[in-house]
Amino acid sequence: MKQLFILFLLLNSCTPETEIEKSPNVIIIFTDDQGYQDVGCFGSPLIKTPNLDQMAKDGMRFTNFYSASAVCSPSRAALLTGCYPPRVGVPVVLWPASKSGLSNTEVTIADMLKQKGYATQCIGKWHLGDRPEYLPTNQGFNQYYGIPYSNDMSINRGFKLADNIVYNEGMTLDSLKEVKWRGGKVPLMRQDKVIEYPVDQTTLTQRYTEEAIRFITEKKDSSFFLYLAQTMPHIPLYTSPEFKGKSERGLYGDVIEELDWSMGQILKTLKDLQIDENTLVIFTSDNGPWNLKNGHGGSALPLRGFKFDTYEGGMRVPMIAQWKGKIPIQSECTEIASTIDLLPTIAHLTGAELPGNKIDGENIWSLLSGEPSASTPHEAFFYYSDTIIQAVRSNKWKFREVKGEVELFNLEEDISESKNIAADNPELVEIMRLKRDAFDKELKADKRQ
């Protein structure tokens, strides 16, 4: 009996360490409209991002990583559910007081991890519906702090207001009832209540960072999931006085360099708390940059296209992953991967149960962990615009058909999609078209409302 008791104690003494191995913390940083080139280690000639560059040295850089949409709301729905946006009913950008949103019957990463006992927080831009049932606190997040849509929008006049709400710019309760639907005056929310209107956007990046550090510090002894969806660099651009006028790339560069500072503060916190070896950190963007001539848009070079496009510049985004001791340092992955792969990968790492509904993402831990023979789990990747499938990529080939124009590119030889070789490869064009049509038919037969 005594021997059995000692065995019981030994087994239980191993439980905490084993549990830590199975249950890493997860942090996803999702910037807004940051172009493929707008990070130093991705080739930016003027924008300085020493913290992101160091993160890449301490981890892995993905050069063929895709958002599942070239616009805001669909890209966020895809990341959180592991599905192409039309499958989960969020194919377009949502507006204040929209009747639709991401259904709370969908299983998000937060839902999945909450069932495993994780503390979950969403900070920043939500943009998946502003009715109560669509807000983060009904989508698996214990806590929410941020603005509910893009920073060029406005407010849902039906929002609950905190008792101690702060009004800025001369706003009052009466004038709030008369605000227009667009204009860049957006609310700051905590949980489901507005705590400031309009929010001072010059402070957003710093306040998000402070909130993130507070959450990480409070939850350092338990498993946590932090989804930090930065408001910037969506237009209009704002940065704090500490960063204004500092970048050689103008205001846009100032904004990115402050986002880099934010990333550095979060990574430093993990290191100081000695939890960086048990924390997976992902940095990426929701889609490509705006095509602006005033210097307020980013760069997707050497890719073709911008936000709203299904050319590479609209959907291929920078991605950096770090997990000390698990992801090989100074590594690069050239295989196809996407934001839709994060949910199944996190499920694999945490032992969480996958959603019962169909998902499109795949577990990419073999890529992240640097297995020598690892290759993309995707036979093809599909590019949707609204509910229309416009393109498909399989290996090095990309087929695109929009408004009757048929295009075929070899992305290994022509990353800029400058040479259309469709006319020279009619059989390949037909193979890719059939692949596109078959997937689209399957998705539409299994999409949720």
Please explain how this structure is put together.
The protein has 449 residues and is of the alpha/beta class. The protein folds into two domains: 21-368, Alkaline Phosphatase, subunit A (3-Layer(aba) Sandwich); 381-445, Arylsulfatase, C-terminal domain (2-Layer Sandwich). Helices cover 27% and strands 19% of the residues. The chain is built from twelve helices and 17 strands. It has helices at 2-13, 15-22, 50-57, 72-81, 109-114, 173-176, 204-218, 250-272, 312-315, 342-350, 365-368, 426-445; strands at residues 25-31, 60-62, 65-66, 119-124, 143-146, 160-167, 188-190, 193-197, 224-229, 279-285, 319-322, 331-333, 337-338, 381-385, 388-394, 397-402, 405-410. An eleven-stranded mixed β-sheet has the order 6-8-7-5-4-9-1-10-11-2-12. Strand 16 (397-402) and strand 17 (405-410) form a beta hairpin. The chain is globular. Mean pLDDT is 94; it is low at 1-20.
